[in-house]
Amino acid sequence: MKISPTVSIITPCFNAEKTLENTVASVLAQSYLEWELILIDDHSTDTTYTQAMRYAEADPRIKAVRMETNGGAAKARNRGIEMAQGRYIAFIDADDLWHTDKLKTQIALMEANNWALSFTSYKRIDGVGKPLSNVGVPHKATYKKLLKTNYIGCSTAIYDSKIVGKVLMPDIRKRQDFALWLKLLKICEFAHGIREPLTTYRVHKNSLSSNKANSARYNWHIYRNIEKLGLLRSCYYFAHYATRGFLRSKMPNIALLLGFLHRSSHQG
């Protein structure tokens, strides 16, 4: 008998042939069984889509779709959200991993407490799987707190579409997940953190998150153009973002961040 999915898991894939197998395996290993996995190939140039089709043929809970052109993670994730049949919308990127009880633990807490948005602590590994660090999260995050720093790792997050509806990511090339959490927090007020690390996040040398200046530009873009914050409020939240980034970084580049802030402020 076919089980209707309670959770729809959205995975954008672009040239992920080296990591997708392990990501899918971590979903297949979930102790919570009522899920569907939607693999959206963002017009890869390697064997990613062939792999995705093979997984879909092997398990009816897995769906594979290919974008006609490469449009970026936001477009790919939004395609998955639109296809989703489950009440809960979860995200895992094509190089990340989930703990076996990730869905079981998170969905149980969301159902018991009527949470609209939740996220978890996570572990960080490098490109070859070497442990780097654990990243903790607060019990609660609000819109204003998240503007200062994004506590929510994309592959840790789940939202309840029964409470907030199907909410899509803003169509920007980078930091679209951060923009989505802000969008959701204007609807549901709180995001609830789970202190147990239930996700493993892979950090690549050339990943977007490792490019501090690039991330800074997109944070500023979100403040000014997505959230429509005034200049002073944008400067206030950007200063918090830059300071926290400095404290977390092993090789800080605070001068670059502050220089960008100065130029952006004058550009208005």
Automatic annotation (TrEMBL):
Pfam family, one: Glycos_transf_2
Keyword Phosphoprotein included in the entry's annotation: no
Keyword presence, Nucleotide-binding: no
Keywords assigned: Transferase
Listed GO MF terms: hexosyltransferase activity
Ranges for domain Glycosyltransferase 2-like: 8-135
PANTHER family, per database record: GLYCOSYLTRANSFERASE (PTHR22916), UDP-GLCNAC:BETAGAL BETA-1,3-N-ACETYLGLUCOSAMINYLTRANSFERASE-LIKE PROTEIN 1 (PTHR22916:SF3)
This protein's name: Glycosyl transferase group 2 family protein
Organism name: Alcanivorax hongdengensis A-11-3
